[in-house]
Amino acid sequence: MTTVPERHAAPARPDGARHTPYLAAGPDDLVRRFVREGDHVHAAATMSRPNALLNALCRSFAGTRSLTVSTTAVHSSAHALALSGAVRKVITGFLGDTYPSPRPNRLYREVAEGRPFEVEMWSLLSYTQRLMAAALGQPFATTGSMLAETDLRHGKEGSLHLVPHPEHPEDPERTVTLLSPLRPRFTLFHGVCADRRGNVVACPPLGEGAWAAYAAAEGVLASVEAIVDDEVIAAMPDRVVIPAARVLGLCEAPLGAHPQSLRTGGLAGVEGYLDDYDFLTDTVAACKDPRSAADWYEKWVGGVESHAGYLERLGGERRASLVFPAPPGTADGMAGPDSGTDVSGPPTEQEQLIVLGARAVADLVRERGYDTLLAGIGTSHMSAWLAARLLADDGVQVRVAAELGLQSMDPEPGDVFLFSQRHAERSQMLAGIAETLGGAVAANPRCLGVLSAAEIDPDANINTTLLPDGRWITGTGGANDIASSVDCVVVAVASPRRYVRRLTHLTSPGLRVRDVVSQFGRFSRSGPGAAFELTSWLPPAPGRGRTGRDLPDDPAAAVRDLTGWALTPGDDGTGAGESTPAAGVSRLLVEEKAVTTEELTLLRTMDPEGFYR
Fold first, then answer.
1. Cis peptide before 325 (omega within 30 of 0)
2. Residue 153 confidence (pLDDT) above 70
3. Torsion angle, CA of 281/284/287/291, rounded to 10 degrees?
4. Residue 199 and residue 489: Cα distance in Å, rounded?
5. Is it true that the peptide bond before 528 is cis, omega within 30 degrees of 0?
6. How crowded is residue 525: how many other Cβ atoms within 10 Å of its Cβ?
């Protein structure tokens, strides 16, 4: 049984007094010193979430179901929030798993019904804009993300407002979306190092950056890899992300972001480390069953007394294997194309999908001059990466970006994780969510979004939130922001359950979707509201339980058998007589060439372990 700590007064900060943060013995001491039942605590989302502090939060408040926690995404070790019973409500944009590929997690199957906690879903950029409004002392944020036009609007009556456009009040079609500020009581943050005054150093990519620190009503509770002398930090003022004035308490927590990664740039002699893929994989497996999930929680969170105990359980050998960049003369353990990967054999259904997606993206870049690809996680980012490689081979340069702040990426072959520090090291710019989803995407008419979908309807509206039986999928992440603001390609395996007549949940709008790519060809349309037509064709490869004998052998049969879009004009499938665009086969259908050896070799070099095979 967990005993919630008694309330202690936070250190007084009278006007004019010199502020010194509380130096805690560790994450548990820091959390118990400040956080109370009923508090709203925010976990800052860089690529290095403050996981040691979150584990301490779960230990300290287990079973109370009292806290509100906001964080951009709940995955990997953050599943402890659900397993601990500490949380009443989560404000986020994603609930599920991200490695080795994005997928639902059983823990959140009934989250739409309030189990294991209430959830309030936002798109990634709008969520960050709410933090920015709080950080800047503004009454509202504005957003171009189409939240009010989708099912994300539900349950936000007090924080999402659609108002007349002040410059066009006479036009009811011209509106502005206002968002209330997101102001937690405390923000948890994990950095590289800090001095005893509380100045916290961190390295990009920074996700939401320092906005969450300034948004907190009380201030920041920070963990760092090392607390160093004041002179060390004084020599690098450009690396201080959170100033001492915002830091209430501070502690050391080596590997405080584990199982996520930390980029350090070698500052203050602190070593960086990679995502612990073995740990992430074990966590996904454990959460498939209630008993094994409880055992995982007891082993890594509830059953250890402190972060020191967690590190001891990890062991020195495992910790050493994660160091990045790897010390000279050692390997970082990544499987590469020379590690015995078989690049022979025909393409699988999934590989054919990714290649056809890459071709569609490459064609649009050549035809319309897009200069940036924003890759959503999943088969979509694999298609975007492959397209960029194929274009580069033809002398066409296009920049690839990822929403947490990686721009002009050159992904490391052999590592399929979209947010790997290996890719960060090979990027030309490292920034944050606002600079990427805002500056490189929403403000850039030459950006092309590449997205995936769990369901997509004939108008290209996307569902990534709920299944028809009410089970949770994952949520929107940054997909709504991308689909709201730039032209898009959707890459998704066709099936009647995925290419549907009506969505279970409208997560992202389809107005800007140009093409939808399936495993047997590309659907295109002349514009929003027009019907999609199959404009290219390649006989589908066996996959997902289908053999060559039961695969459709012509385009019309593929549209009929592998989608729910083959409607007759005027029939919406409900008998209501509404007009729904019918998906047909174009009279100008192009035969796609078979997947080439070059394409397949590039793809399997990118994914030697076959996670997307």
1. yes
2. yes
3. -20
4. 43
5. no
6. 21
Secondary structure in 3-state letters for 516-544: EEECCEEEECCCCCCCCEEEEECCCCCEC
Angle at which helices 597-606 and 349-368 pack, to 10 degrees? 100
Backbone angles phi, psi at 18, to 5 degrees: -75, 125
Apex 182 CA angle, 178 and 185, nearest 5 = 160
Q: Among candidates 348, 276, 350, which has minimal Cα distance to 100?
A: 276
Residue 208 per-residue DSSP state: T
* Residue 579: φ, ψ to 5°: -85, 125
pLDDT at 334 over 50: yes
| Closest of 78, 73, 44, 42 to residue 477, by C-alpha | 73
Q: Report DSSP state, residue 276.
A: -
How far apart (Å, rounded) are the C-alpha atoms in residues 107 and 201? 34
Any residues with CB less than 8 A from the CB of 363 and at least 6 apart, and which? none
Q: For residue 281, what are the CA distances in angstroms to 179, 259, 300?
A: 36, 11, 14
Listed residue (549, 553, 455, 541) closest to 506, CA to CA? 455
Q: Is 482 left (phi over 0), alpha (psi -120 to 50) or beta?
A: alpha
Alpha-carbon distance of 115 to 89, in angstroms, equals 10
**Range of lowest pLDDT (235-249, 437-451, 566-580):** 566-580
String of DSSP letters for 349-376: HHHHHHHHHHHHHHHHHHHH---EEEE-
Question: Radius of gyration over alpha carbons of the chain, in Å?
Answer: 24
Longest distance between any two alpha carbons in the chain, whole Å:
80
Whether residue 612 has pLDDT greater than 50: yes
Cα–Cα distance, 40 to 135 (Å, whole number): 16
Q: Which helix (H) or strand (E) holds 384?
A: helix 379-393
What region, left, alpha or beta, does residue 85 occupy, with left being phi > 0 and alpha being psi -120 to 50 degrees?
left
The pLDDT of residue 542: 80
Listed in sequence order, the residues at least 6 apart from 511 whose beta carbon sits closer than 8 Å to its beta carbon are 460, 483, 528
Among the residue ranges 93-107, 421-435, 580-594, the one predicted with the least confidence is 580-594
pLDDT digits (tens, 9 = 90+) for 38-87: 999 999 988 999 999 999 999 999 999 999 999 999 999 999 999 999 99
Task: Name the token pair of 307.
Answer: 């972060």
Give the pairing type, strands 219-228 and 521-524.
unpaired
Of 375-379, 434-438, 551-555, 579-583, the poorest mean pLDDT is in 579-583
- 3-class SS at 604? helix
Confidence of residue 581 (pLDDT cuts 50, 70, 90): low
Q: Is the whole model's pTM more than 0.85, yes or no?
A: yes
Give me the residues paired with residue 533 across strands: 524, 584
Are 493 and 350 in contact by the 8 Å Cβ rule? The answer is: yes
**Pure H helices in 512-596:** 555-562
d(CA 247, CA 249): 6
Nearby residues of 267 by Cβ (< 8 Å), 6 or more positions away: 192, 193, 201, 203, 236, 239
CA–CA dist 459, 567 (Å, integer): 13
How many CB atoms are located within 10 Å of the residue 299 CB? 14
Residue 483 CA from chain centroid, whole number: 15
Instruction: Give the whole-angstrom CA distance, residue 187 versus residue 168.
Output: 39
Q: What is the DSSP letter of 113?
A: G
